[in-house]
Design a protein that fits this description.
The structure is a homodimer. Chain A is an alpha/beta fold. The first copy, chain A, is built from 24 helices and 29 strands. A seven-stranded mixed β-sheet of chain A has the order 3-4-2-1-5-6-7, with helices on both faces. In chain A, helix 3 links the parallel strand 5 and strand 6. In chain A, helix 5 packs across helix 10, helix 10 crosses helix 17 and helix 22 crosses helix 24. Chain A is flat, with a radius of gyration of 31 Å. Chain A starts with 12 loop residues before the first helix and ends in an 11-residue tail after the last strand. The interface between A and B is large, with 62 and 62 residues.
Chain lengths: 698, 698
């Protein structure tokens, strides 16, 4: 799917830890990239040879400017190309000729909006043939904290986050927000157009980089989405969480959609599916990316959804508890034993059930905070503690309390480490020394309670979801020859999706004979139209010969169908109608979707997605993740549906979809989930436009 | 419902702008309230006489300390009482005796957790009898910026927000967050236990206070919730928005609930209903309160949901657009004409459809920002503009750009004022001079894009919802005598809720006769049990004599009901089942609720609430606000339901509820909304525990 790819692993040392660097296009003009990067490169001059290249020669920034790479005393291991667009290919050729091992291409390659265009492909293939690593074009540089390599236009904070970014301003913003949270970068790579080096290969590399504890990504173009997801999955399994901020391609939203699945399994849904498969943490903004990163570092995520809220004052505790409940966290009432233990040393008016309110205990004895937190964390009655409010502000009270705060912060960090359960802190004083001490101890600190609670809820959502895995695609099956209802049905039935028996007839008499053979009641469906139901092409509940014959004639007269299908009628009122489908996403391949069927599909948009193919276990998990899942479990005295059968049908459809790249959209809507078994009541195939071997007839 | 109340308006000048102040309990001990407040009071000594009172006499803070109020040369207009609890009543008596006109009671009155207890009631009635205004007890002080009255323990920023708070730490936190947003307070009142002065009276007063442009409230106890809501409604109608941060009473969540309505129309839902009725803006956290306040000041809320996103760079624009879409805002594609106008002066790679990406235009010509924003704001094609990203950071570029930024900020503020449409700005540099200039010009500035978009979405949600009004309660009707199904039905039918005809029978023969009279098919319902459906006490679709007789005998044998109701069966499959109910909330009185009925009530919790009684127009609005509203309008070829009839039934039920304070919960579930008409299929009344005149039989 992409010019680059990551089939063979390459050694990226020349990119991150080069023995020598040349900046081609170095300039004294302070608004040029060649100036910023030359200055940045020179900051590492004590660590490695730095050469400036400018075709006019002379001096740049008081240093000798060489006229070309060939003039240098040695081949630079890394060359940064910041030259005018027409000079790009000659500069690359020269770098290759002198033996450069990696190039960072700042210059735009293919025209904006045409990343991956012909010029990019040509650049990448020139570099690959020569065994040269190419980053960009249209990228903003590379940063390695440990190597002292700062080939980026701005100062960046140092830390343990490896950042891949397709936007310079966002890398800068994430850096500023990370610094405010006491975090920083081990490595930063500006991805540019990813003509050669793609995000997937860089994720693989970061997952093996000692200085990197977490991988953060801002990306606009996933390239080979499955390779991307597989690399992220490997990193996460190796203990390095991956946080992803992605923007959908706006062009893509213009694609034609012909089924409900097509509309509901959007690009955004495909990204969600990839995150679930790979165990990535999706973020919706730079701040959320940094907030999640803070929560994932240190002691890491909780093992469940139970949280205790701790505050000194009913207001902060009440607000935190309300937000936690609203975010889907559980606030269990603490046990009588635990409440009794907590009471010791707290004012008599303290609340200890959850939320815990120290009721002024903090200013009487600042260690009320850590004593209480330690007991609750150790109790096992909750999976995490959220502390909210004034802590950090005692510095403004008395000197005793100010000194106490620092000790409390350390004690809190110890209690977290001992219990292995996270504590998330919101303080009105995020810049206080006590807040810094907490951060240094690996306790995330947030300036607002909604961010603390939001991070905890997101991390708790992730519990048990990090092992779905990115599924391998099966070898493509024989492409479909036609895409009618009967073809779709046959394809899916062969793949294991159950349907009611059917006969295709072309006269009223044959319809009656088929019905007698199948058994009443039956359904008649007019064949040859896309939205049968909407044009009155489906007649339900025909329970005798006369009704069948009349319905046949009516369909014939109104719709002149190519033929009519006679099917045994499923017991609609005994089951729950599901929507089951799959869409072939341009980046992530086949994506499976399940949802509540019937009129509720469109109205409530209650759907779940996963990368296809899914196995029965994941299919079941998808079904049970629906808001409407209680209907499947048997709400208000109804019989529960046969989840095994429904999950098997979902898995079967997903396997068919994964074996047919020529199918854009595949759908069974509804699949009737019954107390025993499940049965497809309709089927639809939408071939990919231009896909070989498929026609678009229905 | 409360000891105080706001039936008669009082002049609160002695509280906010006293000619003289005495601090009773003034102290040199730096950890005592009497110290903090004395120091704070003395800061206003150039504006008014300030007297310190300590029963030991001598000096406090280098000032003379009087032994009692009687010793003072004049009666202080305002007295602050910060004395030990046992000294409180004598201090109040002394204040009354010397002719003090207002007292601020810092000392705790009734025990914590017993606000409104007997001691509070006694204090308030003593003050009221003497015509003295009493704030507190258990309050933290009062602040008036214009009067230079700072009887609060911390420095607070000055501005145009009137704040009422039931928590000192939250007032402090809100003050810090407000200051960071360039906002501050006109007045701050710590509510304490509201023994005499309640929030409602203070809202009324702030709504007429010249220096206050917006009223912000943190409250734990609404006291008389309807009076509170009416005061807020009047303030909002008078042009002063009210932002409300509330914490539910945790005790209240323990109340018994006997109907779906009882479970769904929670205390939180009642607060939501009060907000909708009064046009208040609910906030969930201190930061959200300040963010909303920033959005409401300046040019104010948008007139619709359409927004254009403006950024220099595709990343920031794409993230903002995705968040806006996710928050329910609309991003219309801009017209060809407008796109053409926008292109002038922008780089050829700029995107102008929406989101608008200046594509580096900002650094080439900083005025690309204001030129573009002005054109879009003036176009009428959107209701608001969100600008996101780097603006504010050009200061770090070149001097020309730095100077330009300030001019751009002013031009942006002008464009907003001229168009009357809001611009909300997110910048990576919220502390930059350009950001300050924007705030001074009334343009809200946020450090993260989720907050900018979140505020705009919340303000847009509010469009057209500010005129519902707090309904008056009708005079109480004759209390119900009994609460059986038949009683509930009769009560509601008399109030205008339609039901199918019914006959109560006590033999199979009478059941058959009743069915013949009513017409088949019929339903049989066993009388005398609370959850008829759950125990199999309802038999549907009986279409002949034999079926009726058999069903009767089956009910009799299984359930031994008191009697059996025979009703004509409604055409279930032709309509949509709704849940319609009301609950009498302890603070806000009757709250009406509508939702999707049947199994979906519990599963999807898709409900809407309003203060009862509601008229037909509001009832219709509630129905159409449901996520499932498309089902009512006729999704996928179904006939739309008779909204007039459904709304009339909702309004009728709400009127019955509002006339019966002895009823805790009242419910018709389901109400079948049909293409023509609506009909109640069940009815339930849950009397208030201990309510006179009602028994709890069913």
């Amino acid at each position: 799917m992409s010019a680059g790819g990551s089939a063979t692993r390459r050694d990226l040392t020349p990119l991150f830890e080069p023995a020598s660097v040349a900046v081609v296009g170095a300039s004294d003009d302070p608004v040029k990239w060649g100036n910023w990067l030359a200055r940045a490169a020179l900051r590492g001059a004590s660590r490695r040879a730095v050469y400036l290249v400018n075709r006019r020669g002379g001096e740049v920034m008081g240093e000798r400017a060489h006229r070309g790479l060939a003039e240098l005393p040695e081949a630079p291991e890394l060359a940064v190309l910041a030259v005018p667009p027409p000079a790009l290919e000659p500069a690359l050729d020269e770098a290759i000729a002198v033996g450069t091992r990696a190039v960072v291409v700042i210059t735009a390659g293919s025209a904006d909006g045409d990343a991956g265009g012909a010029r990019d492909v040509a650049l990448a293939s020139r570099a690959r043939e020569a065994g040269v690593i190419l980053l960009g074009p249209n990228c903003l540089g590379v940063f390695d904290a440990a190597a002292g390599l700062e080939l980026v236009p701005n100062d960046l904070p140092r830390g343990s986050i490896g950042l891949l970014s397709q936007s310079g301003n966002l890398a800068l913003e994430i850096g500023m927000l990370a610094e405010a949270a006491g975090l920083g970068f081990s490595r930063v790579v500006s991805l540019g157009n990813q003509a050669d080096l793609e995000a997937a290969e860089l994720i693989q590399d970061l997952s093996e980089h000692d200085g990197t504890e977490l991988i953060a990504i801002y990306v606009e173009d996933f390239r080979d989405g499955r390779a991307f997801a597989r690399a992220a999955e490997a990193a996460a399994r190796g203990g390095k969480p991956v946080v992803l901020l992605a923007v959908e391609h706006s062009e893509a939203t213009a694609r034609a959609v012909r089924s409900h699945t097509g509309a509901l399994a959007s690009e955004g849904a495909a990204i969600d599916a990839a995150c679930a498969a790979a165990g990535m943490h999706p973020a919706n903004s730079p701040q959320e990316l940094v907030d999640l990163s803070q929560g994932l570092l240190g002691v890491g995520p909780p093992h469940g959804r139970r949280v205790a809220v701790l505050a000194d004052g009913g207001g902060h505790g009440g607000i935190a508890a309300a937000l936690a409940g609203g975010a889907g966290l559980e606030l269990p009432a603490l046990s009588a034993n635990l409440r009794q233990t907590l009471r010791t040393g707290l004012p008599p008016t303290a609340a200890v059930a959850n939320p815990i309110d120290l009721a002024g205990g903090g200013e009487r004895d600042i260690h009320s905070y850590d004593r209480t937190a330690r007991i609750v964390l150790a109790s096992g009655e909750v999976d995490a503690v959220v502390m909210s409010g004034y802590f950090g502000g005692y510095t403004h009270y008395t000197e005793t309390l100010a000194r106490g705060e620092a000790a409390v912060a350390e004690a809190l960090a110890d209690a977290v480490a001992e219990s292995g359960r996270p504590l998330l802190v919101q303080t009105m004083y995020p810049e206080a020394g006590a807040a810094d001490a907490l951060r240094r101890g690996g306790v995330p600190v947030y300036p607002t309670i909604e961010r603390a609670v939001g991070v905890l809820a997101r991390l708790a959502d992730h519990v048990g979801r990090d092992s779905r895995g990115v599924p391998a695609l099966p070898p493509p099956a024989e492409p479909i020859a036609a895409a009618s209802y009967m073809d779709a049905r046959a394809l899916l039935a062969a793949g294991g999706v159950p349907f009611e028996p059917v006969r295709v007839v072309s006269s009223a008499a044959k319809a009656v004979a088929a019905a007698a053979e199948l058994g009443y009641p039956v359904v008649l469906k007019a064949l040859g139209m896309l939205h049968k139901s909407d044009v009155g092409g489906v007649v339900l509940g025909l329970s005798d010969e006369r009704a069948v014959a009349a319905a046949y004639r009516d369909l014939r007269d109104r719709l002149a169908p190519a033929a009519v299908a006679v099917e045994r009628m499923a017991p609609l009122d005994e089951g729950v109608e599901l929507l089951v489908g799959a869409r072939w996403d341009a980046r992530f391949g086949p994506v499976a979707l399940v949802g509540l069927g019937g009129v509720f599909t469109e109205v409530l948009r209650d759907v779940a997605v996963a990368l296809a193919p899914v196995d029965e276990a994941i299919a079941r998990e998808l079904l049970l993740s629906l808001r409407a899942a209680p209907l499947l479990r048997g709400a208000r005295g109804r019989a529960p549906v046969d989840l095994d059968a429904a999950a098997a049908a979902v898995a079967a459809l997903s396997r068919v979809a994964a074996a047919h790249p020529e199918i854009a959209e595949l759908e069974v809507n509804p699949l009737l989930a019954l107390p025993e078994g499940a049965v497809g009541l309709d089927a639809r195939v939408v071939p990919r436009v231009g896909a070989a071997g498929a026609t678009n007839q229905v």
